[in-house]
Task: inverse folding
């Protein structure tokens, strides 16, 4: 049996990858700052420590993306997105707001995986994506939802989750 | 003995050893048989070498491995259901997860066919024999079967998510990366949901994070909804089964499929 003709993907990010990963880094910094705002506002209740940890996860994701794309990393958050969500993150519905943000990040990262050429960048985004999916499930619990009665809130990325970058959703 | 005498002795010993080598070589040549005068002398006969199979890590091999893991999960959940030890929310979740794995298996089978491959619709043979069956055997003898089933499910879901994650940089077809993580992120959500059922007081581990001391844990747990900042490919430990005479239970380390666990296309011919 012979292997089909394939083109081995490059290891390092291509020029196009760098643009996409720069967007991803900016989104991770935005998420970090939103969680920091929530913790500063003291709206996390019994789960304030978990919110602080989730913010730290986004910070680490942004640093890892920066390590892959080097000097092309923007190192700045998306101010428009931050301002659009800040009031929700500092209010009583922080868990639902964060749940929505994490679902959007998961949907965006999945779309990025369909666009990225380099294996280093795609491996990193996959490792970030899977944690943000777990964030979403945890935040559903923080929001007081039931894993049985509201199972989809825990287990599924909504098909209408807003994409946070200008990328096409690959056909599944 | 002076240096000259020592040198002469060394030469004599060398000549003796050389003569013995020549004699042994002649003996070996004689044992080699006289059928071929041009072959290299050898002792006995060697069997013909078996040609190794061609086993490239193709997209199809990765997809077949992914579907094999889904069938491992289906087998495990059906076996756990057969034990009849889950009830209430845990039973409802296990039932939902079983349905999800069947759906995932269908999508991977379809993707395998679309990639021109022959789908794999059985559990991964190696993972079944080294992880699933031993784990289920331990649970059958456990004093806490329900707790062990949930612990095994948590570990298996984490492993399944990690497997899809590990395949992402290996796929040649970019579209398959996104499709794989569609399943992988749902396995991660399964694990997270089990984690928050098993450890509802602390959802996110602070291990390895640079955070304020007031948010750091003083005691750690095996179970978290979110155990780390990145999806880890490290072995997933699960402690299950009866305690031995020292009170120690068995810990099984589940690892993502390595090269000897992939479901290569050549396996269809065996």
Result:
């Amino acid at each position: 049996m012979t292997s089909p003709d394939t083109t081995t993907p490059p290891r390092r990010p291509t020029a196009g990858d760098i643009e996409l990963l720069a967007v991803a880094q900016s989104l991770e910094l935005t998420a970090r700052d939103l969680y920091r705002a929530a913790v500063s506002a003291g709206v996390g209740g019994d789960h304030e420590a978990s919110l602080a940890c989730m913010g730290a996860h986004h910070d680490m994701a942004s640093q890892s993306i920066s390590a892959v794309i080097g000097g092309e990393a923007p190192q700045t958050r998306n101010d428009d997105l931050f301002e659009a969500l800040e009031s929700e993150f500092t209010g009583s519905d922080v868990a639902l707001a964060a749940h929505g943000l994490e679902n959007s990040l998961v949907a965006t990262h999945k779309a990025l995986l369909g666009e990225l050429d380099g294996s280093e960048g795609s491996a990193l985004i996959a490792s970030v994506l899977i944690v943000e999916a777990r964030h979403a499930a945890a935040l559903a619990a923080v929001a007081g939802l039931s894993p049985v009665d509201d199972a989809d809130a825990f287990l599924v990325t909504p098909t209408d989750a807003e994409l946070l970058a200008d990328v096409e959703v690959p056909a599944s | 003995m002076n240096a000259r005498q020592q040198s002469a002795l060394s030469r004599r010993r060398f000549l003796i050893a050389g003569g013995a080598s020549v004699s042994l070589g002649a003996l070996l040549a004689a044992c080699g048989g006289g059928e071929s005068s041009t072959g290299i002398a050898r002792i006995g006969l060697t069997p013909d070498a078996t040609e190794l199979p061609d086993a490239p890590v193709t997209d199809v091999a990765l997809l077949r491995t992914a579907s094999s893991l889904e069938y491992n999960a289906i087998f495990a959940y059906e076996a756990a259901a057969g034990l009849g030890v889950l009830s209430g929310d845990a039973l409802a979740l296990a039932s939902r997860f079983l349905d999800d794995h069947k759906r995932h298996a269908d999508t991977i089978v379809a993707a395998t066919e679309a990639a021109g491959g022959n789908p794999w619709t059985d559990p991964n043979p190696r993972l079944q024999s080294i992880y699933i069956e031993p784990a289920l055997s331990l649970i059958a003898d456990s004093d806490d079967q329900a707790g062990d089933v949930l612990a095994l499910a948590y570990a298996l879901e984490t492993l399944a998510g990690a497997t899809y994650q590990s395949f992402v940089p290996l796929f040649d077809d970019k579209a398959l990366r996104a499709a794989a993580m569609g399943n992988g992120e749902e396995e991660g959500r399964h694990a997270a949901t089990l984690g928050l059922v098993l450890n509802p007081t602390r959802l996110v581990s602070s291990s390895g994070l640079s955070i304020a001391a007031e948010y750091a844990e003083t005691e750690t747990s095996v179970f978290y909804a979110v155990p780390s900042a990145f999806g880890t490919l490290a072995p997933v430990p699960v402690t299950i089964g009866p305690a031995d005479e020292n009170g120690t239970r068995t810990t099984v380390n589940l690892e993502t499929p390595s090269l000897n666990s992939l479901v290569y296309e050549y396996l269809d011919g065996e």
